[in-house]
């Protein structure tokens, strides 16, 4: 099962503060453990919301763009890991090992699979999804050369 582990923002990350050398070393060591265990698919830190935007859709489905920054830092995301593990409990175990320090917070969410969508995901839609994923995998492969 895949889980997305969101690292919650705080006032420092929202102010654009970057990690110290020691914090980066600790995070690199943690990421290396995830990779060696064969569970890490992706992970990155995110820029503060002052560099971001939100797209809201009104009652007529018209998109409205709202530039950051956004409030309530604790409800925002500062980074993430995408992991593939055997259970929610294993994802929680990994999150508990993250070097976030006092006040750090990680939210863990399961990534839905085709089976979760039942009959709504028709064979045609499933095939289209598979084609898009294959195309993206080829694109990534080409970029890595």
TrEMBL record:
Classification via Gene3D superfamilies: Dimeric alpha+beta barrel
One Pfam family cited in the UniProt record for this chain: YCII
InterPro entries: Dimeric_a/b-barrel, YCII
Sequence ranges of Basic and acidic residues compositional bias: 124-145
Domain of life the protein comes from: Bacteria
Residue ranges of the region described as Disordered: 119-145
Family assignment from sequence similarity: Belongs to the YciI family.
Protein name: Dehydrogenase
Domain YCII-related, chain residue ranges per copy: 1-112
Organism in which the protein naturally occurs: Saccharomonospora viridis
């Amino acid at each position: 099962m895949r889980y997305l582990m969101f690292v919650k923002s705080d006032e420092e990350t929202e102010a654009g503060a970057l990690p110290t050398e020691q914090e980066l070393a600790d995070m690199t060591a943690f990421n290396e453990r995830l990779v060696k265990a064969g569970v890490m698919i992706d992970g990155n830190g995110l820029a503060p919301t002052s560099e971001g935007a939100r797209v809201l859709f009104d009652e007529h489905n018209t998109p409205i763009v709202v530039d950051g920054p956004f409030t309530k830092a604790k409800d925002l995301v500062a980074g993430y890991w995408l992991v593939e593990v055997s259970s929610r409990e294993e994802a929680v175990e990994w999150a508990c090992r993250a070097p976030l320090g006092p006040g750090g917070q990680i939210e863990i969410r399961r990534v839905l699979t085709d089976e979760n969508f039942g009959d709504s995901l028709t064979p045609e839609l499933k095939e289209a999804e598979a084609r898009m994923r294959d195309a993206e995998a080829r694109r990534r492969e080409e970029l890595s050369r």
